[in-house]
Design goal:
Helix 1 (3-34) packs antiparallel against helix 2 (40-60), helix 1 packs across helix 3 (65-75) and helix 3 (65-75) packs across helix 4. By secondary structure, the chain is mostly helical. The chain has one domain (3-88). A two-stranded antiparallel ribbon has the order 1-2. Strand 1 and strand 2 form a beta hairpin. The protein is 70% helix and 6% strand.
Length: 106
């Protein structure tokens, strides 16, 4: 896999992860709403928080690929390290990435 393809896969998978996380929160909150356990004010505040997180996720696609790759590895470190274990770095690629291995950068 070429470095560009690897970076694209990382970004797409990260966006899907963030979107999935947001949708799970929405589903749980809707269940609480249906059960009468959330006030309208609480729901409005929740929706605002979801909107803000959604904007962050959308902004990922508007950044330079190299910048996003570097941000992902620090924003969600645990997710990144798990993802990188399942997706081998292309040979000669990943300059500046901290894969969590001894010595830091790949």
């Amino acid at each position: 896999m070429l470095t560009q393809e690897w970076e694209k896969a990382l970004i797409e998978d990260y966006r899907a992860y963030r979107l999935g996380r947001l949708l799970e929160l929405v589903c749980r909150q809707l269940e609480r709403w249906k059960g009468g356990r959330v006030t309208p004010n609480e729901m409005e505040q929740f929706m605002d928080e979801i909107y803000q997180e959604s904007c962050v996720t959308q902004n990922i696609s508007r950044q330079r690929r190299d910048r996003v790759v570097n941000l992902i590895q620090w924003w969600d470190r645990e997710w990144f390290l798990e993802w990188i274990r399942a997706h081998t770095l292309p040979s000669g690629g990943g300059s500046g990435l901290d894969t969590g291995e001894s010595g830091g950068s790949a």
